[in-house]
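Researcher: First entry.
Model:
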Amino acid sequence: MISSIDLNPETKALRAEYDALRKEYSERFQQKEYMISFEEDHIYALYMNLIGQKQYEVFVLDYDIAKLKLKQQYLQSYINRNEKPDMAKVETEIALQLNEYKKKIIEQQEMIKAANEYLKAPLLTDEQSKEIKELYHTLVKLYHPDLHPDLTEKELALFRKAQAAYKQCDLETLREMVRTIDLDKYDDMLDKKGIETNWQERVNKLHEQLDKIKSDIEQLEEKFPFIFRDKLSDKDWVKEQQTEISTVLEEKKKVKEGLLKIIDLMLS
């Protein structure tokens, strides 16, 4: 690739280092994109399906308990005043006080529904998933602006098109984009552009960009839902979590039943 251009040993070494960094950066960039575009949604959906559903049930019970406790307080105030409870007014007041709580319940319900629908959707085969990654990796190496700061507007548009196709799992578009690339010709073009390139400056900048994207990936790994990636594939861990939440549910059901009995007595 660079044999046709007379580069001194120092420049050749810097160019080789740059090429190695460019390869690693494109791999890391693809890793980050994969985490954000695919893996995050999948792990989140699994979590909501296996754990979140039961946590939602706990949340609903907490709402029911809060509602019953407020009703108990309102009824007690009527009893203290020796008045007949205005239940319509009581229910209205309670609904106003717990309005935000109710909104959160609806939001969580929608999230669980979306997660379940996601898991039911057809998935790419392992072969298709592998091909998409490979195609996108090729395009990232050619068109990522961090790797090629002197790209034309047309080339930048191709990069944005590749990003969109990758996020939408548009295999045919990625295939077509790669089919239209003459890789040898493109490498020759890069070499010609690089005759007057300050390779030390490019290497230094790419080191900074690589450190940044590594840091981004590390931060993602420490956040929800990625912190549960391995645990969700551990059936024993999942069962343990579900058992613990079921225990909490049973305890809260007893609290709710106790409050219902108290309110029945207050109304009798």
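Researcher: Second entry.
Model:
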Amino acid sequence: MRRTLALAAFAVTAGIVSIFTPSFTSAQSKDKAKAAPKAPPLPTNVAAHRDLAYGERGERNTLDLYLPKSESPLPLLIWIHGGGWQAGSKAGGGPGMFLLERGYAVASINYRLSSQATFPAQIEDCKAAIRFLRANAKKHNLDADHFGVWGSSAGGHLVALLGTSGDVTDLEGDGANKNVSSRVQAVCDFFGPTDFTLMNKQTVVKGPIDHDSPMSPEAKLIGGAVQENKSKAAKANPLTYATSDDAPVLIVHGDKDPLVPLAQSEILVESLKAVKVPCELVVIKDAGHGGPGFSSPEMREKIQGFFDKNLKVKK
């Protein structure tokens, strides 16, 4: 299903739009970190457990967990940040923090960046974090059978891949809790790339990135120019692993996105529909790579409704 929302045009929205640029220096990272707005105060009934180590690779293998008081186990929403796989962090918890007051626990994770390790390190870390959270579900009063993921841009790519690769052992990595599943039960993908080899061809709104360049974010992720490393690009492509038992997916994308073409989401929907996976693509009219339409009250309700349908146990 595809819906078009006539919402506001492109403008950067803190916490949702991600940085997806050809180069991103450490100095720029520090400047942006200083400029980042502070997260709103937590509700009084929420306990924050920050910098929990889910792996052995230092700060990039940590997560923050936000737990409302509850008499029964809570479904968990896991935020995976964007940043072109080159930058970004778990700080602030992500745009799903509003769900803390709507019956959810929330986690936000770090993962290794492409300057530290090439793919599949990033998805291996995401899966290790999910296994850690599921292994410790009883300790933190989490419903281990109802985990959802949400990410934007590079994070959107990773959550889509989590949704389709729950049974792919080659992407699990060497982390702990190997006997625990990394499957998720719902995926919300904000403008994530899918097939890197088609991005230049699919571009409608010209942006600053030559996706076929050996210096593109995608090339840095897989360790070489995408047209010269098509097998590596395929390994990172969520479409490669789509099967009928994948998690339901909600995709949101702007039709004027200059960094990740809308067609990247369209081919994901086609692939999921072909194997009968429940999916919906919401297209925001005149929006770019993020913007106010992605965080409007209507969009929040849409996203909560999607997660409620798939993650909340019917009484």
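Model: Note on the second entry: The first strand starts at residue 2 and ends at 5.
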